[in-house]
Amino acid sequence: MGKFTEPAKELLEHVGGSDNISVVTHCATRMRFVLNDNDKADAKKIEEISLVKGTFTNAGQFQVIIGNDVASFYNEFTEIAGVGDTSKDEAKVAAKQNMSFIQRMISHLADIFTPLIPALVVGGLILGFRNVIGEIGMIGPDDLTLVEVSQFWAGTHAFLWLIGEAIFHFLPVGITWAISRKMGTTQILGIVLGITLVSPQLLNAYGVAGGGDIPFWDFGFAQVEMIGYQAQVIPAILAGFVLAYLELGLRKVIPNVISMIFVPFFALIPAVLVAHVVLGPIGWTMGSWISEVVYSGLTSTFGWLFAAMFGFAYAPLVITGLHHMTNAIDLQLMSEFDGTNLWPMIALSNIAQGSAVVAMIFLNKKDEKEQQVSVPAAISCYLGVTEPAMFGINLKYMFPFLAAMIGSSIAAVISVGGGVMANSIGVGGIPGFLSIQFQYWIIFFIAMFVAIAVPFVLTIILSKTKMGVNAYKRLGKK
Questions:
Q1: N or C: which end of the chain has fewer CB within 10 A?
Q2: How far apart are CA 280 and CA 273, in angstroms?
Q3: Considering the entire predicted model, what is its pTM?
Q4: pLDDT tens digits for 89-106?
Q5: Boundaries of every domain in the chain
Q6: pLDDT digit string, tens, across residues 306-364
Q7: Mean pLDDT of the region 131-142
Q8: Which of 9, 10, 20, 27 is labelled catalytic?
Q9: Is 427 in contact with 383 (CB distance < 8 Å)?
């Protein structure tokens, strides 16, 4: 008998047995189930298992929080359950059977941007550092920048742009690659398509607004403007999906013996042509309209109201998965306004959720089992990963979740009221200040303090109200 035999048997029984398991995998702390019938899973009894620290359902998957022992537990569980090992990608595919159409669309968007996030985070930090050394006067009576007084920092500033440009100006390459990867089509074709959107042959997207003559391809009967789509999100998404669906469709009609030649040829050339003739101009217009509406809304007289609503609603958006849409909006804002005023509010929302958990740690300091969930959840939340905190603690009690939403809303109003801009998407927690443009650090630190203090105090206050008392009774805590 192994170390986790008994809890594994209990978990198997309460998820509905082996026949109810379609797919099971695990991440760093959680077991992820795709169940044939979610109603057969008894979450209450599962949470009573000594090893289990909480449960929740997200993105079509029933997830059980185990903790650091999850890998060892998973091995014993799969052996006892008689279910085979599978990959996270396969789990995502299987999970879609439990999703609505809207959920599947959001899942597609998440699958596109998730592989790009590490590069975007690095890019944001690099742009922030370049801003500090190249734009902020801090030396001598003339307030000279580090770049102006030091050749080393001047060289560093220029060198780092090599990476920043690769990440943001050539972002369409990453997007079209991610789409081809997600759709199971030829990834190198996705990369080639992306390069055709940002090729040095083309007039840089940032140069179009400057006026002057735009070069064009002359086909005799028609002319196509040679405009690049550097840093543009929507044109790349539209072009990427056209290429993917063309390739998938051609595979069905072209015999295998010649598919290696004709499928890439008849997929790539039309996709590039359509991208430059139709999708690029349409996507650019759509992206500009969306970013203008968001930016104007946040900087208008009623920007505080938009900020309050977004700060309050962002955490619920995470539950539904709709928060993935903000990645595209952030990137579009960056391309249009050299920064985003949306992302700082997201970082503050994450911090607020973590602060509510810290309050719960204080309130339940004698509950050792809950501490095993809440302490790691608070740490991961402050580092930008909110799901363990939200699903493992805050949503279970509800009043800390509400306290975090209120704190996030107030912090968002301060951020927008102070005009805070981030260079890019960054680490969505306390380290997120590194992505904030340097001139806004002070106001962002004030907003961050509010996101830490208000949820903590409110959670303790709400725990004494009828809402808090009922939550404890419901969970059998008091």
A1: N
A2: 10
A3: 0.71
A4: 554 554 455 555 555 666
A5: 5-99, 115-290, 300-474
A6: 999 999 988 888 776 667 677 778 877 887 787 888 889 999 999 999 999 999 999 98
A7: 77
A8: 27
A9: yes
Could you give the 3-state DSSP secondary structure of residue 62? Answer: strand
Distance CA 51, CA 73 (A): 9
Residue 279 burial by Cβ neighbours in a 10 Å radius (0-12, 13-18, 19+): buried
Q: Determine the residue type at 68.
A: N
- Give the separation between CA 428 and CA 33, rounded to whole angstroms: 27
**Is residue 223 helix, strand or coil?**
strand
Domain covering 5-99 assigned CATH 3.30.565.10 in the classification? no
pLDDT value, residue 88: 46
According to DSSP, residue 39 is labeled: G
**Comparing 372 with 433, which gets the higher pLDDT?**
433
Per-residue pLDDT at 281:
87
Whole-Å CA distances, 245 to 4, 159, 248, 328, 427: 46, 39, 5, 21, 34
Look up 381 and say whether it is catalytic.
no
Q: How far is Cα 126 from Cα 422, in angstroms, rounded to an integer?
A: 12
The residue count for the chain? 478
